Amino acid sequence: MSGSHNHAAPTHGKAFAVGIGLNLAFVAVEATFGFLSDSLALLADAGHNLSDILGLVLAWGASVLARRKPTERHTYGLRSSSILAALLNGLLLLVAVGGIAWEAIRRLGEPAPVASGTVMLVAGVGIVINTATALMFWKGRKNDLNIRGAFLHMAADAGVSLAVVLAGALIYFTGWLWLDPVVTLLIAALIFFSTWGLLKDSVNLALHAVPENIDMGAVRERLSKAPGVAQVHDLHVWAMSTTEAALTAHLVVRDAQVNDQLVSQLKKRLHDEFGIHHVTLQLEAVTLSDCCQLAPM
């Protein structure tokens, strides 16, 4: 017995559209002034922002695909596309980090003059744009790994822009040109650590691991202690998307207690207590004497 429901997550379409538009305009400005001022930190930030735009496009596309209805070919719809987008976003960020770090190391040996005033002005604009975009995804970040990826992209960008402003100020007052590549390396480290958790979680979901917010032991206990349930086996919990989880299980029950009410109650409790939306329970009826001989699992 199973439940069929539509629990599509909101697409955050307006937030994605505004975020992509603002960041496209900012990347064009930042890259231009980065070349003119010969600031590696500014160019690195522009490159990172460009990868974030692609990340936002991926996340937006996945959130839209996740709302597609099931078909004969894709019986769960395209919910899992949100997991793939989160995974690709993590990988994209790591590639960006590698490129930024490599160029920063090269520049350490060849420091170049930097127009620090221009750097501070452009990066300051970046702080405003990236913070505003990140706040658009603030509420959705807790319950959706895909939205969390978009939020992390923008939050990291705001932090990066702040670091660039501070580097520009220090270069202006001290003349230490080596600060530009050093700050760039710090930016790369910040991006890496903010990305690692996202990448780890998305890989686990792609491998059908139990979502971190679900306690498998507590789920098993809830099922096994239900009235009339003698044993639970073949219990599986996995993520269907970055917002939805599914469960299948075999319940060994006593003949007299096999009814739809038991199944309905269990589905409601699994939804309310663990956030599991899609539940399939197979009931196996046994006699009382057989039930007493079953070993707990």
Chart the SSEs and their pairings.
Layout: H1 13-37, H2 40-65, H3 81-108, H4 116-136, H5 145-174, H6 179-206, H7 216-224, E1 229-239, E2 245-254, H8 260-274, E3 278-286, H9 288-293
Parallel strand pairs: 2-3
Antiparallel strand pairs: 1-2
Helix pairs in contact: 1-2, 1-4, 2-3, 2-5, 2-6, 3-5, 3-6, 4-5, 5-6
Notable traits:
9 helices; 297 residues; three-stranded mixed sheet; mainly alpha
Notes on the structure:
It is a single chain. It contains nine helices and three strands, in the order αααααααββαβα. The protein is mostly helical and 297 residues long. A three-stranded mixed β-sheet has the order 1-2-3.
Share of helix, binned:
55-70%
From the N-terminal CA to the C-terminal CA, the straight-line distance is: 22 Å
Structural class: mainly alpha
In terms of DSSP E residues, the strand content is 5-15%
Count of helical regions: 9
| Strand order within the widest beta sheet | 1-2-3
The average pLDDT score comes to 77
- The H-and-E topology, N to C, reads as HHHHHHHEEHEH
Radius of gyration: 25 Å
Annotation, overall tally of beta strands = 3
Instruction: Report on the biggest sheet.
Output: 3 strands, mixed
Instruction: Tell the overall outline.
Output: elongated
Low-confidence blocks of residues? 1-9
